[in-house]
Write a structure and sequence with these properties.
With 104 residues, the chain is mainly beta. Helix content is 6%, strand content 25%. It contains one helix and seven strands; from the N terminus they run E-E-H-E-E-E-E-E. The N and C termini lie far apart (31 Å).
Length: 104
Amino acid sequence: MNPSSAPAQAQLVRLAEGDRAAVSFTLDGRPATALEGDTVLTAVLTNTCSLRRNEFSGQPRAGFCMMGACQDCWIATDSGERLRACSTFIRAGMQLRSGQEEPA
């Protein structure tokens, strides 16, 4: 993905490594793509502006330490499993929930 094709609200813009295979997943029920070898955190933040909302303040969060120590990057799957987004690699078909879905 080059900068001009990045989603408008993405926190991260991929500048290099666009030659890896694409991986499809869903984020909050919407289709999304990442590249093979991306962490869930990278996959989410190249598609949207934040990973989740803070459970106490409601403020957007995008991870903090990026190495699995701070506990700030948890994300859920559709089945309710909790994952550390910074240390879990994206897999094709993953169904992720950020808790930021638009109300129905």
